[in-house]
Amino acid sequence: MRLQKNTSLALYSVLEFAIDPTRHIPAAEIASKYGVSPHHLAKVLSELARSGIVESVRGVGGGYRFAGNARRATLMDVIRLFEDLTAPPAERREPGDLTPVGTALGAVLSEIDEIAKATLSSITLATMLRLIERQQGRPVGPVAAPLNGEPVRPVEPAKPSKAGRGGRKAAARAATAGAAVVGRGRRQGAREGR
After folding, report:
1. Is the whole model's pTM more than 0.70, yes or no?
2. Cα–Cα distance, 52 to 12 (Å, whole number)
């Protein structure tokens, strides 16, 4: 799946805004950071504002800020605003697409696109923010300053408990034990001449 320039700009912008959802960031700041025309970026941001993912504030201290829920919004939510994800019409196909090789290759490429869509639908903006933090080796986003002056990070969402992992381990042990029982049954049957 190849993304258009507007889609990439939308993803960059939304993630920049989601890093600090309390801050209003001017479009010119984003345009400068990503080397694009402020006028072109304004069109992208306008579409994001219409969708409700970002909020626009005019005037001094204005700009854009993230207005969505980073734990629920996915990369695909942003991509769908800018990409036509439907299959190309039959009249736009190449002559080779109708051959057996072309049909088989088309099936594989279609499956790859479906996997990409499913993956992008499963990655939330919060997941992306954690990835950015890991890559930078430091926290991103707003930092609160308590009375003692030491910065404190906002509370991160709880990680899955080990009970969930234990459940998978228990299932794996049960499957292994079941295979061992079947194996013993086969060996025992062989000794008895079955």
Report:
1. no
2. 16
What is the chain's Cα-based Rg? 25
Distance CA 114, CA 185 (A): 43
How many other CB atoms sit within 10 Å of the CB of residue 161?
8
CA 80 from centroid of its chain's CA atoms = 13
Strand partners, 64: 25, 56
The answer to whether 41 and 25 have CB atoms below 8 angstroms apart is: no
Helix (H, G, I), strand (E, B) or coil at 114: helix
Contact call for residues 35 and 156 (beta carbons, < 8 A): no
What the block records as the tokens of 158 is: 């709880």
Query: 167: which 2 tokens?
Result: 């459940």
Q: How many C-beta atoms lie closer than 10 Å to residue 45's C-beta?
A: 25
Reported as a single tens digit per residue, the pLDDT across 59-83 is: 888 899 999 999 999 999 999 999 9
